[in-house]
Amino acid sequence: MPRAERKGSKSGVYHVMIRGINKQCIFHDDEDYLTFLDRLIRYKKDGDFELYAYCLMNNHVHLLLREKEEAISSLMKKITVSFVYWYNNKYERTGHLFQDRFRSEPIESDAHLLTVARYIHQNPVKIGRSINNWTSYPDYFKNDGAVDTDFLLNYFSTDRNEALRQFSLFMNEKNSDSYIDVNDRKRLTDTEAEIIIKKIGNIILCQDIHLLDKKERDNILQNIKKEGASVRQIARLTGLNRAVVLNA
Predict the structure, then answer these.
(1) 201: buried, middle or exposed (CB in 10 Å: 19+, 13-18, 0-12)?
(2) What is the pTM for the complete model shown?
(3) Which of 11, 96, 150, 183 has its CA 20 to 30 A from that of 202?
(4) Are the C-beta atoms of 241 and 210 separated by less than 8 Å?
(5) Which residues pair with 65 in a beta bridge?
(6) Domain layout of the chain by residue ranges
(7) Residue 106 has what pLDDT?
(8) Is the pLDDT of residue 226 over 90?
């Protein structure tokens, strides 16, 4: 079956996600992260695209960028091929590292742009890490040219200090944003998640999970997450602290 044509962006702005083949780990140490960022920034400095946000996770990468003359597919090929050549040499391996086809979604509205930037910056937070952990969030305060910061900051204020204050508040705001991610499974509705929680926990109400001892509760939470319910969703439906669900 032929691949579906990639949906183009009228604005030229895309949320891009690339991941390791078979979801394998692509970053093992700081050198790996830094080398990927070096390749990313190098091509940006060549003027091929504008970069508004990034996040490097263990087995996938999120980017928020605007293509210019060169198509996004060509840009991503340059970045990934350059990194894979270095990676294979370092780890004495051959073959593919990234899944062949990167995922992307066009960004056509201001609200979509800002919430995707927040989603990207908060990716590490979902697994208990800091928003500063291999994301572009700190770059906004360093303003060293690695990221095109003015584009997003101007949505908040023309005064840079005020823009940074509002930007920080918005990027750290709790939310239920959900966009393309490494998990291909269909996102469960709350109703579907509620049924799964009750069935696996053998409980009448989702909140009854509080009545279980820690070992039994954590085992049930692990199985619920395997069924596709998100950490935020489980916490919201059961009333458990998100950290409890995350660490189960």
Answers:
(1) buried
(2) 0.72
(3) 183
(4) no
(5) 14, 51
(6) 13-171, 190-247
(7) 93
(8) no
How would you classify residue 171: left for phi > 0, otherwise alpha for psi between -120 and 50, otherwise beta?
A: alpha
Give kind and range of the element (H or E) at residue 61: strand 60-67
Dist. CA 196–CA 210, nearest whole Å: 16
**Token pair of 204 as six digits:** 């009448």
> Quick one: 53 exposed, middle or buried, by C-beta within 10 A (0-12, 13-18, 19+)?
buried
Contact 240, 209 (CB under 8 A): yes
Distances (CA, A) of 132 to 57, 146, 168, 228: 12, 15, 12, 27
Which residues are paired to 62 by β-bridges?
17, 55
| DSSP secondary structure, 140-198, as one string | HHH--SSS--HHHHTTT-SSHHHHHHHHHHHHTS--------S--SPPPPHHHHHHHHH
Q: 13-171 sits in which CATH class?
A: alpha beta
| pLDDT for residue 176 | 77
Q: For the chain, how many residues are written?
A: 248
pLDDT reading at 2 higher than 70? no
